[in-house]
User: What shape does this take?
Amino acid sequence: MAEVEARPIPHPCWNEKKKLIKYEKAKSPKPATKSATEEDPAAALALAEHEFGEHGGVNMSVEASITFTVMEAETMRRMFEGEEGPEGECFIYSRHFNPTVMALSRQMAALEGTEAAYCTSSGMAAVSSVLLQLVSSGGHIVASRTLYGGTHALLSHFLPRVCNITTTFVDIKDHGMVANAMLEGKTKVLYFETVANPTLTVADIPELSRMAHEKGVTVVVDNTFAPMVISPVRLGADVVVHSSSKFISGGADIIAGAVCGSKKLVHSMMDLQQGTLMLLGPTMNPKVACELSQRVPHLGLRMKEHCHRALIFAQRIQNLGFKVIYPGLKDHPDHHLINSIANTSYGYGYGGVLCIDMETEERANRLMNLLQNHTKFGLMAVSLGFFETLMSCSGSSTSSELNAEEKELAGISPGLVRISVGYVGTLEQKWSQLERGLLKMKL
Assistant: This one.
């Protein structure tokens, strides 16, 4: 009988053993000290641990398994009791944690400068999961009046009806109103968007965070409109959520979201008995995670071009006499604020979305029809962050969940055309198409 070769006993968590083998030869050493340039989100991404493929490939492998083995039966009990877990690369089931999704999550944490992150099946999954983790039945949220329509509906209709969680909506620019709305001992979360959808109002994150923390309130910020442009946690926020379907994806082909925050929060959301990410099941497909992980590294380059074109177009539209809204314009009421909080010194600009207020829905629709069907400037479609320009009349589309009074309070004009500026074609070519449409509106 042939002699059986002796093999070392692997680590009780099979995945940890594979990870050690994988990185022994390939892992790059980390710098001993941090440099000042790490304030640039792109620099932080470059320092994030690179995930190599199973056989040393430069791209990570997709872990498609829904369930994972252990080398010792006792390990399974420890995992279900919380003694072993993702920190030690011990995996149970992909609804709980998946290695490929975790690799993308580490990129997102680096991007936002947080201790941890976890990626979800959609942006709304990220928003609802984090709010339900932080706010119990009977709890209270203070939120900006101007939010994405789906988030507004979640706060104003779903959470009160299903979870007994109420929300007070405020003018996020009126800090006195914000402070008065936070109820001692009851308000758990202050929620707002970095750059509001669709009005492009900019939140004073440092001051709002200071006010909230004085009252023991957690600050949750939706940074979907401004990845790379603004870093909310570095300005005092506690949690950042994203609809990664937008700028982070860039291809209008993936639905995804992310929650970025402390390890304590992320781990609590994955708790087997109390965690919303575990129990509600907003699971990201690992194939989606792998694809997104290949887009995050060039997000900075894409954002710079989105923002550059948006600023040029906004200035030229204004010169034609139209009412244009863009934080990069010097007469925008939040221009000074965004200059003080944005990563403008690294060339990320003021965002890739601008608005033209056509005053009425009829005029808004006429403009969009001209720009899509006649001058070929862009496409009439919701969403943003695509390489093609996307246009929608917010009041009758992505903000349609708000009633007429709520839209007025939020500052959403019936004729507000939201334009997510793409980068297909040359700048001058696209400006010519936009200009022809605008000039036709004057006839």
